[in-house]
Each structure stands twice: as C-alpha cells, then as structure tokens.
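Closing statement on the flavin-adenine dinucleotide sub-project.
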Amino acid sequence: MPTIMIAYVEQRQRLVSDGDAEHSDGGDAGQENIGALGVAAAAGDIALAARDFGGMVFIPPATLLRPSKTDDVVRAVCVARRSSRLTVAARGNGHSVGGQAMARGGVVLDMRDLGPPMELVRCGGVAADVPAGALWEEVLEWGVRNHGMAPTSWTDYLRLTVGGTLSNGGISGQAFRHGPQVANVAELEVVTGDGERRVCSPSLCSDLFFAALGGLGQFGVITRARIPLVPAPKMVRWIRVVYKEFEEYAGDAEWLVTRAGSEAFDYVEGFAFVNDVSDPVNGWASVPILPGSVFEPAKIPAVSEPILYCLELALHHNHREAAGVDEVGNLAHLPRCIRTHTTCLSTAIVANTTKARTYTTHRPRRAVSFPRWNS
Ligand SMILES: Cc1cc2nc3c(=O)[nH]c(=O)nc-3n(C[C@H](O)[C@H](O)[C@H](O)COP(=O)(O)OP(=O)(O)OC[C@H]3O[C@@H](n4cnc5c(N)ncnc54)[C@H](O)[C@@H]3O)c2cc1C
C-alpha cells in the first residue's frame, strides 16, 4: 500500500550517504517539527484523516493541515524535510479505499481549501486553472455556468478532487474516446519533496509532469492543474439498455466504442446488476436513470439468469440533432428493457430539470425505436 513519503525518502538518502545513523533524528523530532508548523489539529481532524472511504484502514496522522495557498504546502513539506521520519500525504476527498492518502504519525494535507479560485486561461485553446482540491463537480458547475465550457474527460462520480484523480487516472464512460483524465491535462503546479514549487507540462519538466500524473502523490503535491475545456454540449441524450446475455451486451459495447468520428457515441459504459427486485442497491433499482424513470421487468424474459447487464450511453446532440426520429442504430440485439432520458446539461447542473429532445444517429444497420420520453 503506497504511503506518501516524499520528505522521508529524500532525507533518508542524505543521512545514509553522510554515513550518519538515521537515529540521529531522535524519536520526537517529528513531533517537534510538527510544532514548528504552529497548528494543533483537533481530535476530529485526526480521526477524519485516519480513515478513508474504504473504511478498512485506520492510520492516525500526527496532524492535519488545511493549506489555503501553495506556500502553505511548501512550508509543510519544508518542515517535514527537517525530520527523517515525518511523512506528508495529500488528501483530496478521501475516496481512496486502501489508506493511500494517509500518513502514519505524519502530516496530512487536506487539499479542499486550497486556492486561488478557478480561472479561465487562453493558451492556444481554452483551459481552466483549477486548484487541486476542487471537486470535479465544482469544475463542471463553474465551467458550464460561467463560460459554457467543460472538460472532455470525467469520472462518473464527480465528488472526487482534481488532484486525487490526476494522481490515479480518472476514468469514465468518456475515456474510450478522450482518454483518462491524466491524458487531458495541459500543465501542473507541483510542490516537490525538496519543498520547491515547480510548474511542469509535456514540454516543461516533463519527467515531473508524467511522474505526478498517476503518481499517487509520491512525486510531489499537485497544487494546480490546467484542464483544457471545450464547449459544453447543449443537450445530452442519456440511455440505458438492459441485456440478458453477456455476449450480446459485450458485442454491442465493442461495437459502440469502435464507432469513429461523427458516428461515435460520447459516453459508453456498462455494468452488471442482480436480477432481483428486492436488492435495493444492486438489483433492478440500480437501472432507472433518474427519479421518475421506470425499470420494466415485464420485458425481462421469463427464463433469465440471476445477473443481467446494462449499457449506459450518451450522445451530445447539439451538433447532430435531427427532429422527429428517436432511434439508436446498429445495436445488434433488441434490448429488453429500455429507458431513455434527455437532459439539458446546463440546467441539470443547476436545477436538475429535464427536457425531452430527439436525435438521429448515423445510418442504422438495424434501428431500435425508443419510447418517447416526454415530447
Ligand atoms: C464512490 C466512489 C466513486 C468513484 N468513482 C470513480 C470514477 O468514476 N472514476 C475513477 O476514475 N475513479 C473513481 N473512484 C476512485 C477514485 O478516483 C479514487 O479513489 C481517487 O483517488 C479519489 O479521489 P479523492 O479526491 O478522494 O483522492 P484521495 O482518495 O484523497 O487521494 C487519492 C490519492 O491521491 C493522492 N492525492 C490526493 N490529492 C493529491 C494532490 N493534490 N497531489 C498529489 N497527490 C494527491 C493521495 O495522497 C492518494 O494517494 C471512485 C471512488 C469512490 C469511493
């Protein structure tokens, strides 16, 4: 299990090469250095930083800091450097499941309060400079509401931080088309283990850039990311298709992710669920998209396996809209239970309101008609 040791690793190397014993940094040196930070963490903060979403690992740090600017991160790392034992871990929204954002007896940096606020930048294209502790949900709302722009690659669950997912990968149903989030970053600001604040990109300090992306915080603390933006789609057609047979589900998934250019879907993802009405989490209830949409069990064949499969698809259709037709072409097998939903993205974020529209995809081999949602 990776534990962040950016300060520890570097200091240990120096001590060993000096021919010095690690013990030269006495047992309480870490605590003294924490004192130098001048912040005493509340018991609740320590408890928060000792756990993560997985709930399986409990590792109390010595303290938790909430940096509000990059200089606060620099200071914490510099203080940790003075100890051979004090480790530093950045914590995004704590949605790791194996203790990756914890520091045993060390300093946890809660990145959520980090500034400065998000800013639109023009650098060839349009991008957003985003503090690493921002949630992707906040980036989406800020971009669409203020600028009508959005990143191209998301996580499915948006209450994860920019720094947290860029330190992992960041995948969703858009990754087949645009790559994971780590492939959609123009620039990073990183505080490295020597306490330096460095700006890096594919062409500037590229070693640091590519190490920090997917690096689980082992190569420094990301404090800012520059995320390219594109115009947000006006409308999104959102569909779930349920399958009885895995081969049909997998065959259609493969077909969907290999469409090119204007024939491509914007989002494709799949999941399995339990063929059971009584399981509120993994059963039929996991299929309807929004409150008000209905799963139609009557369409499930009488002889079905205990596991069913669902493809979730989306089409952005401000650029390919055609009135009057409601069909997705070329799905190889007739879906058994279908619900479609069309959402106006900008209003969905703000008020979760919906609006029905229609669209046509490319010339279908075999068109499947969908029930009108709410025309
Ligand atoms: C309910 C749920 C839904 C999820 N959905 C998705 C999904 O749709 N797509 C997906 O790809 N993943 C998903 N994940 C996994 C998720 O991406 C990772 O667990 C991610 O690490 C969580 O982000 P976080 O902001 O909570 O980071 P944390 O869990 O707080 O941190 C993750 C790692 O990144 C490091 N880190 C955090 N911030 C920084 C920083 N600023 N600089 C350097 N290192 C840093 C931490 O030290 C740690 O090693 C999901 C997880 C859960 C629990």
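DSSP finds ten helices and 16 strands in the chain. With this model delivered, the sub-project is considered complete and its resources will be redirected to Aim 3.
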